[in-house]
Automatic annotation (TrEMBL):
Residues 13-386 form the Major facilitator superfamily (MFS) profile domain. InterPro entries: MFS, MFS_dom, MFS_trans_sf. The keyword Transmembrane helix applies. GO terms for molecular function: transmembrane transporter activity. This is MFS transporter. The keyword Coiled coil does not apply. Keywords: Membrane, Transmembrane, Transmembrane helix. The chain crosses the membrane at residues 12-36, 48-68, 80-99, 105-130, 142-165, 213-234, 240-262, 283-305, 361-383. It comes from Rhabdonatronobacter sediminivivens.
Length: 386
């Protein structure tokens, strides 16, 4: 059983899974920012079509997520995660050879399948199958590693683009999946070696109430909407507040370190508390940041980015730990798939919706995400510890 393995072996599991998830995020979520424009230029499209194809991939991921979670509940996560590497590689190869927009959309559709079975939700479910109710620390561990996906992904995509071209960059990421991520996932425990959660005749906690399930689903959807909106429009928002272009870019660069620093805090001090405690504080961080930006304008750009990044970093962990703490480990994979399905769809719409708000209202568009953050905080206070 996994609980009898050495600390080195447990650390190896977290390192392997965290590294493979870094590759999965870097080669899916983070390639449009670098490759969308050259893709569109060669295929004689507006870049909006490439981003539209990426949004379609998010919807595909939302649809496939519950199935992937149920599969992990039944047989463990190793096989599902290894399959995701093959699917990612196939989608990237289709992108690389795409002669037309139709094939480009097909490639992104395949990548959406990989996202549905190979990102955080699948990783969280895999760790819950291995560690059961003690999965909180490993979940935090893989987010600490995969939190550097953009730090690794953007420069590497840019280097391959500058050296070879966007098609060759896609081939490069496909090879990284096959030569690095796939062997790392193959090192994970087999399904037969994980605790037999699926064999439990009853849940290891009270059945989740429909109200609690709905509240948590709203929390995940709302926080992912805000995260996607800020990821797409943060520089423009900060400039609307009076920050210079250089200051806006520098402030945006703080988000990644702030996320990682907050996750370190969660791994150390905050893990002594129930996940609801850290989730409530994290949800409140964005509204506080918004009020600060509205009150002080451009000079508060760094404070805004730091608070938003820290809250977003902890909420990423909460998406794995809250369902575990509130509903138990039995059936975790399928449950987290359903909880995150609305979030994926809202994430696809967020850049367009907030972009329109920013165009219409300027800086006051921040009231939209601040209001969503306040509703999220209220929903978390309505939830009670199991």
């Amino acid at each position: 059983m996994i609980t009898r393995l050495s600390p080195a072996r447990r650390g190896g599991i977290v390192t392997a899974l965290g590294t493979s998830l870094t590759i999965s995020y870097a080669s899916s979520y983070y390639i449009p920012a670098v490759l969308a424009v050259p893709m569109a230029r060669e295929l004689e499209l507006s870049p909006i079509w490439v981003f539209g194809a990426f949004s379609m991939a998010l919807v595909v991921a939302a649809i496939i997520g519950p199935w992937a979670g149920a599969r992990i509940d039944g047989v463990g996560g190793r096989g599902v995660l290894m399959l995701s590497n093959l699917v990612f590689a196939a989608g990237l190869v289709v992108l690389a050879i795409a002669p037309s927009p139709m094939v480009l959309f097909a490639g992104w559709g395949i990548i959406g399948l990989g996202m549905g079975i190979g990102l955080y939700e699948a990783g969280f479910a895999t760790l819950t199958g291995i560690y059961g109710k003690d999965a909180r620390a490993p979940i935090t561990g893989i987010t600490l590693i995969a939190g550097f996906a953009s730090t690794v992904g953007w420069p590497l995509s840019g280097l391959m683009l500058a050296t070879w071209g966007w098609r060759e960059a896609c081939i490069g990421w496909a090879l990284i999946h096959l030569l690095l991520a796939l062997p790392l996932n193959a090192c994970l425990p087999k399904g037969t070696e994980t605790p037999a959660m699926r064999a439990a005749p009853v849940q290891d906690g009270p059945p989740p109430s429909p109200m609690a399930f709905a509240l948590l689903s709203f929390v995940f959807a709302a926080t992912l909407f805000n995260a996607a909106a800020m990821a797409a429009h943060l520089p423009g928002l900060l400039q609307a507040a009076g920050a210079s272009a250089a200051m806006a870019i520098a402030a945006g660069a703080l988000i990644g370190p702030a996320q990682v620093a907050a996750r370190v805090l969660e791994f150390g001090l905050l893990r002594r508390f129930h996940p609801l405690v850290s989730a409530r504080a994290a949800a409140a961080a964005h509204p506080v940041a918004a009020v600060t930006l509205l009150s002080f304008g451009g000079p508060a750009a760094y404070v805004f980015a730091g608070l938003h990044g820290a809250g977003n970093g902890i909420m990423t962990i909460a998406k794995g730990t809250l369902p575990l703490a509130l509903f138990g480990a039995a059936g975790y994979g399928q449950r987290i798939g359903w909880l995150n399905a609305p979030a994926r769809i809202l994430q696809a719409a967020a850049p367009l919706v907030f972009g329109a708000a920013l165009t219409l209202w300027g800086l006051h568009a921040i009231w939209l995400t601040a209001g969503i953050g306040l509703l999220t905080t209220g929903a978390l206070f309505l939830l009670r510890r199991s």
